[in-house]
Write a structure and sequence with these properties.
62% helix; 8 helices; two-stranded antiparallel sheet; Lysozyme; 202 residues
């Protein structure tokens, strides 16, 4: 009987793991509806804000741009000879599209060694950690545009203004800022309701 149960557990485990991965929100253009649907995301966003001072609306604007809230998304593989799947252009993965080396740096600094790039709460904490490095340099917590440029160029690259040669990146950063401002307005309209309903308990 023990062997039979173990076999069943081995069969069911992959399905359970898949089911633990959160699907994208049904209405990604409304932060209030996102947090009402994804209560654990709200909890993670508030925890990140308290620890790293990164506002929820900036965090969510980042994730919308980077992954469209998809937990396991990776860059598409390049094609060899136009049709043979080849290497991926980078090691980025998950909600934040964090690079493997940067994620390892985060783990070493924070001690969050069991963290996963496909976990929303861990990704939120990572984004807050990275943004906090900019806060020490004078970045505003609501300046999603500059934070996004620094996220892609690194703080050293941002200081050298390497993004000026990448108009496409500037355009994307502008979209992140616009979405952050949209989310901010929405969030101010529902923050009290979210807190009042005690979305931390579920």
């Amino acid at each position: 009987m023990i062997q039979k149960n173990s076999f069943r557990a081995a069969i069911l485990l992959p399905f359970l793991l898949v089911s633990c991965v959160s699907s994208p929100p049904e209405q990604p253009d409304d932060i209030c509806k996102i947090f009402k649907e994804k209560k654990s995301w709200y909890k993670a966003a508030i925890k990140t804000e308290k620890r790293w001072k990164l506002p929820p609306y900036v965090l969510m604007a980042f994730f919308h741009q980077e992954s469209s809230f998809q937990a396991k998304i990776r860059p598409e593989r390049k094609k060899l000879l136009g049709f043979i799947p080849w290497f991926r252009p980078s090691s980025s993965l998950g909600y934040s599209q964090a690079l493997k080396n940067t994620w390892e740096e985060y783990q070493n600094e924070t001690g969050n060694t069991w963290s996963s790039r496909t976990d929303f709460a861990d990704s939120a904490d990572f984004a807050g950690w990275y943004a906090s490095k900019g806060f020490y340099q004078g970045f505003s917590a609501t300046d999603a545009r500059s934070l996004y440029l620094a996220y892609h160029e690194g703080y050293g690259g941002f200081k050298k203004k390497t993004y000026r040669k990448k108009q496409w990146l500037i355009n994307v950063a502008d979209r992140v800022q616009a979405r952050s401002e949209m989310y901010q307005q929405q969030y101010w309209g529902c923050a009290k309701e979210l807190k009042r309903k005690r979305f931390f308990f579920f």
